[in-house]
């Protein structure tokens, strides 16, 4: 039988025999175990290396397949960049006064296109700081940002964080949806590379800052500056720039009008980012953080109240351009003077409110049951005043306490105000013990407040009557100011151009003008004596016109017009003939023949007229139906004016309705 020798242990001396080996069984067992552990460690390490290499290889293959798919399949499906290279956004119709004050804007999208060089540097830096500070360094896709977002997505088990560069956002805003999927992200990346090859960085940033939605129907930062702060983009401060830069992420959440606290937090974060990136200094940062932001209140979009004028322009533009009116970027400059318009608006408001005060207090607008003081009461007041919005300087409030000497009220923003003394004079009857239920002012009553010249509150009421005013220049009949009612938002009916009213004695100058044209003169003597006209039909009533004062006998026409004598006016009309007078005022002054009956009462202003027609007639010019001066598109090129405007004289001067000697 052959002798089989056990191999020598690597840990034993080579000369030891089998007996020596068997005399140390513990030591050799430990050696064998250590040898097994070493082989196990080498096996695990090798396995990890192989697994990692396999993973990298797999990822490389998958990546190559994705890139190949993107280039072969998705690449040809990418849209054309014509929307970017030939950028034609929807720009609304804008209406301006003659001194270029914006008074109206009509369109689904509020947008003002601004060139890159006209965007303030601080606005650009604020956007870059929060949206894409490496914008000028990457080629359209920021891979570091993508890796960061990828790890965040894996941690949250889904697409929870984006890594879109400004270029990728431009791609999404113009061509893609906002859905968070990996397929859309790939399209974004491919489009971003395509955009970067076609446009410069400055052009891409310009597109982004003009196209991005920023809430309140505002698209682009120039429009947002106007909507939120009432300023041109070039005039906003660093603090305002940072606040606007925070809007793209969530326009409603960071709206400085609706959510001022959240907007302030976002603004401070952006300012801190700008400081960390050395875009601004420490002093600029400190000053911007401390700056108080003043936003525009809803309903106070324009510095001049000219809503009726703007609506007139809109209607005439729509008649010419139809739906293009709201997207073509038309700019209409009117003949309105902003100072005159503001004075007219204030005059109408004051006149109507003075009339209201002379006719007594009608009572509170409504009533709400008030809970105990606290959050529930504040919410109840807020809900109640939602249905009673402020009307310019006339503020809605809910009474919280009332007695004949002092009334306390709360405004919609929670401000507590007190009214006493002269501020209660108008509503003294509603505070007395004998007040009726309709006029009684008590806790829960919804009332109106207005501040006097000294800033003290007075209780007033919204008017039920209306008023209107139109002012024209005698040289060309251009409308310099027009107020069609007390409040456009409350009543859009234009009492200047839509309301048919009998002009009364203001129509007498037209009859006298016809008489002068017929041959009578200012010194012609006319008898101011009683008149009697029997009925022209059997059983009818006779007409015996009267005057406000006693007849004065014979007098010159000049004096009769000065005193507005009814009987003299009727005698003049009877002399020249009603048909002659009708033809004269309709042909010379543009009045409607069917609303100018050829009867003797025409001398007293019978027959309805528009205020603007009467005003133009008094000045001796034909009516101009729209206060338009020029129409241009977004590039400043002249456009075809509406047909209703083309009847005006080519030199801009209206045709005289009467000769100089009779005007």
Automatic annotation (TrEMBL):
Biased composition annotated in UniProt, kind: Basic and acidic residues: 626-638
Pathway entry: Glycan biosynthesis; Cell wall biogenesis; peptidoglycan biosynthesis
Protein's cellular compartments: Cell inner membrane
GO molecular function: penicillin binding; peptidoglycan glycosyltransferase activity; serine-type D-Ala-D-Ala carboxypeptidase activity
Annotated GO CC locations: outer membrane-bounded periplasmic space; plasma membrane
Database matches in InterPro entries: Beta-lactam/transpept-like, Glyco_trans_51, Glycosyltr_51/Transpeptidase, Lysozyme-like_dom_sf, NA-bd_OB-fold, PBP_transglycosylase, PCB_OB, PCN-bd_Tpept
Residues covered by the Penicillin-binding protein OB-like domain: 361-465
Keywords: Antibiotic resistance, Carboxypeptidase, Cell inner membrane, Cell membrane, Cell shape, Cell wall biogenesis/degradation, Glycosyltransferase, Hydrolase, Membrane, Multifunctional enzyme, Peptidoglycan synthesis, Protease, Signal-anchor, Transferase, Transmembrane, Transmembrane helix
Transmembrane segments: 48-72
Domain Glycosyl transferase family: residue ranges: 102-274
GO terms (BP aspect): cell wall organization; peptidoglycan biosynthetic process; proteolysis; regulation of cell shape; response to antibiotic
Region (Disordered): 1-36, 536-555, 626-663
Family: In the C-terminal section; belongs to the transpeptidase family. In the N-terminal section; belongs to the glycosyltransferase 51 family.
The protein's name in its UniProt record: Penicillin-binding protein 1A
Organism of provenance: Paraburkholderia bryophila
């Amino acid at each position: 039988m052959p002798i089989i020798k056990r191999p020598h242990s690597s840990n034993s001396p080579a000369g030891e025999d089998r007996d020596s080996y068997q005399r140390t069984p513990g030591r050799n067992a430990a050696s064998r175990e250590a040898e097994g552990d070493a082989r196990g460690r080498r096996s695990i390490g090798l396995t990890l290396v192989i697994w990692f290499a396999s993973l990298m290889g797999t990822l490389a293959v998958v990546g190559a397949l994705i890139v190949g798919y993107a280039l072969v399949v998705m690449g040809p499906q990418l849209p054309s960049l014509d929307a970017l290279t030939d950028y034609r956004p929807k720009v609304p119709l804008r209406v301006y006064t003659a001194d270029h004050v914006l008074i109206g804007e009509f369109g689904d999208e509020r947008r003002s296109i601004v060139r890159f060089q006209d965007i303030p540097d601080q606005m650009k830096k604020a956007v870059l700081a929060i949206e894409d500070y490496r914008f000028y360094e990457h080629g359209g896709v920021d891979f570091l940002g993508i890796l960061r977002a990828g790890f965040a997505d894996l941690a949250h088990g889904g697409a929870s964080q984006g890594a879109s560069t400004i270029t990728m956002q431009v791609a999404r805003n113009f061509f893609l949806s906002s859905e968070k999927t990996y397929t859309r992200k790939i399209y974004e990346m491919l489009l971003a590379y395509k955009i970067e090859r076609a446009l410069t960085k400055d052009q891409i940033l310009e597109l982004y800052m003009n196209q991005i939605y920023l809430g309140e129907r505002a698209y682009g930062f120039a429009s947002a500056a106007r909507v939120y702060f009432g300023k041109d983009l070039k005039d906003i401060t660093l603090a305002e720039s940072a606040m606007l830069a925070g809007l793209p992420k969530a326009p409603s959440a960071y709206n400085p009008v609706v959510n001022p606290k959240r907007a302030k937090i976002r603004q401070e974060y952006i300012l801190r980012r700008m400081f960390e990136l050395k875009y601004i200094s420490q002093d600029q940062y400190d000053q911007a953080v401390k700056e108080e932001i003043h936003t525009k209140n809803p309903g106070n979009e324009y510095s001049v109240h000219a809503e009726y004028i703007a609506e007139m322009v809109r209607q005439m533009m729509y008649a010419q351009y139809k739906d293009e009116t709201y997207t073509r970027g038309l700019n209409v400059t009117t003949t309105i003077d902003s100072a005159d318009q503001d004075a007219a608006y204030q005059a109408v408001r004051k006149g109507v409110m003075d009339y209201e005060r002379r006719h007594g207090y009608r009572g509170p607008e409504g009533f709400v049951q008030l809970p105990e003081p606290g959050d529930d009461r504040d919410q109840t007041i807020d809900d109640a005043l939602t249905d009673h919005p402020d009307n310019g300087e006339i503020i809605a409030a809910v009474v919280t306490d009332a007695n004949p000497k002092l009334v306390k009220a709360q405004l919609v923003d929670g401000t507590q105000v007190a009214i006493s003394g002269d501020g209660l004079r108008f509503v003294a009857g509603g505070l007395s013990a004998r007040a009726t239920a309709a006029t009684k002012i008590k806790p829960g009553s919804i009332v109106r407040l207005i501040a006097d010249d000294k800033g003290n509150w007075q209780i007033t009421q919204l008017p039920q009557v209306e008023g209107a005013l139109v002012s024209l220049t005698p040289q060309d009949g251009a409308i310099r100011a027009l107020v069609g009612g007390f409040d456009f938002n409350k009543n859009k009916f234009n009492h200047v151009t839509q309301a048919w009213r009998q002009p009364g004695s203001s129509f007498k100058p037209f009859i006298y003008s016809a008489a002068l044209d017929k041959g009578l003169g200012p010194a012609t003597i006319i008898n101011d004596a009683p008149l009697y006209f029997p009925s022209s039909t059997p059983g009818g009533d006779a007409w015996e016109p009267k005057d406000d004062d006693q007849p004065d006998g014979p007098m010159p026409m000049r004096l009769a017009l000065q005193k507005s004598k009814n009987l003299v006016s009727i005698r003049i009309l009877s002399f020249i003939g009603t048909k002659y007078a009708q033809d004269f005022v309709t042909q010379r002054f543009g009045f409607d023949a069917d609303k100018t009956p050829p009867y003797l009462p025409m001398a007293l202003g019978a027959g309805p007229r528009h205020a603007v027609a009467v005003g133009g007639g008094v000045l001796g010019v034909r009516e101009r139906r729209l206060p338009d001066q020029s129409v241009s598109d977004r590039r400043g090129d002249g456009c075809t004016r509406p047909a209703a405007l083309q009847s005006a004289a080519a030199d801009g001067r209206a045709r005289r309705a009467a000769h100089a000697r009779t005007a």
